[in-house]
Amino acid sequence: MVDLVFSERKASAAKGKNPLVSLVLHEESADAGKALKITPLGPHEFSVGLGDAKSLDAEAVRRAAGKAVTYAQSVLQKEDLVLSPKSSKKLLASRQLLCAFVEGAILASYSFVKYKTSSDGASGGGNGNGKDQVFLKTVHLPVPSSPEIVTAKAVAEGTNWAREIQNEPANVATPTMLSLVAAREAKVLGLSYKAYSRQELEKIGFGAMLAVAKGSAEEPKLIVLEYVPKSGIAKRKVAIVGKGVCFDSGGISIKPAKAMDEMKFDKNGGVAALAIVRLAALLKLPMHIVAIVPAVENMPSGTATRPGDIVKSYSGKTIEILNTDAEGRLILSDALAFACKDHKPDVVIDLATLTGACVVALGDVAAGLFSNDEALAKDLYRAGLESGERLWELPVMWKDYDEKVKSDIADLKNLGQEGQAGATAGASFLKAFIDDRKWAHLDIAGTAWATSPKPYLSKGATGFGIRIVTRYLQESAGKAK
């Protein structure tokens, strides 16, 4: 964790053999091309350009903060960073921009090095504490403390908490491991917790989820983590459903070997859902939030589901499985129906690395947004812009798309029309398991992990969706500024 120190302490005033390093964030009114350019100003001071002053926004500040932290850690080998009072006046006068600076700095301070060993052979340990690694420990801000800045710190650190789990390999991050993480957080934060076993899932009729889990020796878990405000009346109940495929080989419809290692990230939506409930508790939001995470492995074996099999879902609808690699929508169909029927939320939001088609459409720049409620879609879109996690809305309500996922021999099939609107077909399939609830589906397949470093995100898991949904919940609760 990174400590925030609210003071005007300068780097040159620091005592000891390891003085602090001072960062000047400055605007370039004439040359936007100088954004993110690093300029050394002395032995303990450097600057980073913010770009054109007229277009300075929160995302520009996040990126500059990330660039500065990366430089301080890797080049200067410093653990403490001072935001200089000589920085942009616009930045220092804006709580929104200062929050963005804190977010960018903390997100950039994270890197997954748990399994690296230092030069003496010792393990790196946890969140980057190996002897050969330098990680940010303290940020000094030349402004008074504020609730907004403290909240920004909590959200960024909550995102990093999730990234550490998301980055874990499949031999560590099993469905059982995710359930134990949820149990631990429930105990620490006073949350309600339940993890349904295979036997319990068979008893209550989770046929679609169990069809995915059949090929793996790993025990599937349906994880339910719930936060209820201790004081006051919850303004609304929101269910966050997250896809938790701890490893996705594709099953019998096996994936190509190239980049299959990245399929450890197919659990990222599920981990994000847990992180959102955890943050709601830490921030004491006046909202009733429940995370529902169907956690499985999708593996090929003699017991695995075959293409052409038909299963009965928790909702009672039957599903023809044409491709076992379209497994995310299967486990989510049961989890969404369970959320609506058993928990009766006002709003349902699901996060899922669902389709390669969404990556084709939007790349790694934005996630797909699908919703049956215009106001909810607008709120999430705005929360995405404010948090720096962008969404782009795609259609889901046109009945023409629903026809594409109807089966000739069952109620539904888990593929749409070949080569057409694959992301929308996935969303249309999920829509069949929502009753009259307000619902939004975030297809985060292109944004859940980074294949190369970004200004404030290291290679690997990004925690995408946590900041969006937390921002949405804050605004819904009337607490966001």
Query: What is the top-level CATH class of the largest domain?
Result: Alpha Beta
Distance between the termini: 24 Å
* CATH fourth-tier homologous superfamily of the largest domain: Zn peptidases
Q: Rough shape?
A: elongated
Radius of gyration from CA coordinates: 23 Å
| DSSP summary, beta strand count | 20
Mean pLDDT: 93
Helix content: 25-40%
By secondary-structure content and strand pairing, the structural class works out as alpha/beta
Beta content comes to 15-25%
CATH architecture level-2 label of the largest domain = 3-Layer(aba) Sandwich
Number of domains: 2
Low-confidence stretches: 120-130
Oligomer: single chain
The major beta sheet can be summarized as: 9 strands, mixed
Could you say what the CATH topology of the largest domain is called? Aminopeptidase
Helix count, DSSP H or I runs of 4 or more residues: 14
Describe the structure in brief:
The chain is an alpha/beta fold and 481 residues long. The protein contains 14 helices and 20 strands.
Topology:
Elements: E1 3-6, E2 21-26, E3 38-42, E4 45-49, H1 58-74, E5 80-83, H2 89-92, H3 95-108, E6 138-141, H4 147-166, H5 175-189, E7 192-196, H6 198-204, H7 207-213, E8 221-227, E9 237-242, E10 244-248, H8 268-282, E11 288-298, E12 310-312, E13 318-320, H9 328-343, E14 347-352, H10 356-362, E15 367-371, H11 374-387, E16 391-393, H12 399-404, E17 412-413, H13 422-431, E18 438-443, E19 449-450, E20 460-461, H14 466-476
Parallel strand pairs: 1-6, 2-4, 2-5, 5-6, 9-11, 9-14, 10-11, 13-17, 14-18, 15-16
Antiparallel strand pairs: 3-4, 7-8, 8-11, 12-13, 15-18, 19-20
